[in-house]
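Here is the promised in-class demo. Please do not try to memorize the tokens; focus on the logic of going from shape to residues.
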């Protein structure tokens, strides 16, 4: 039985993109009927469809560290709801300030290590998902994707600081999802037609 999102180490907003294919479970069974080796190769090739997206996400995470975010005031913005309505809301505006970092916890490396492509072909769920595993990367797989993060200062749980994050998740997915989907369909076609 599949675990609920909150049991998998996330929630409904867990960073995940899913590429579904026409009945992936059936496709993998057909490939296994042809040959178990073809099914293994197909599964391996499907795990590789997200490599370009993950590579782009890792390059963003490897970029220059963002600075501290100093509150510079507030601004009124119009917010649109999913139902088409809108309302005005006051939001904080931040200015960049250089960060004086003298140590690192390796958090960005953990977030990079948490990025993976997963092939699921169960009875209730099937598809290819690109996800950031919270069990590997910790809570910052979501936190570091925000524009501004508020967190305690190293070694001091009473003093907090605001810092710019590195939104690494959605832009590479928007740019690469069509290509990833096509790679998945090509891998399935090659396997079922004896070319894989």
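The designed amino acids, position by position:
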């Amino acid at each position: 039985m599949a675990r609920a999102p909150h049991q998998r180490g996330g929630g409904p907003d867990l960073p995940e993109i899913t590429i579904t294919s026409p009945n992936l479970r059936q496709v993998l069974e057909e490939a296994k009927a042809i040959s178990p080796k073809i099914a293994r190769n197909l599964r391996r090739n499907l795990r590789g469809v997200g490599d370009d997206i993950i590579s782009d996400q890792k390059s963003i995470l490897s970029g220059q560290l963002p600075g501290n975010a100093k509150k510079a005031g507030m601004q009124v913005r119009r917010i649109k709801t999913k139902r088409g309505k809108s309302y005005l809301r006051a939001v904080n505006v931040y200015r960049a300030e250089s960060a004086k970092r003298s140590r690192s916890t390796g958090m960005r490396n953990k977030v990079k290590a948490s990025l993976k492509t997963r092939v699921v072909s169960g009875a209730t769920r099937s598809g290819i998902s690109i996800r950031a595993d919270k069990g590997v990367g910790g809570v910052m797989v979501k936190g570091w994707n925000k524009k501004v993060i508020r967190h305690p200062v190293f070694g001091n749980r009473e003093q907090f600081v605001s810092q710019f994050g590195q939104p690494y998740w959605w832009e590479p997915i928007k740019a690469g999802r069509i290509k990833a989907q096509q790679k998945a369909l090509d891998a399935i076609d090659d396997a079922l037609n004896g070319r894989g």
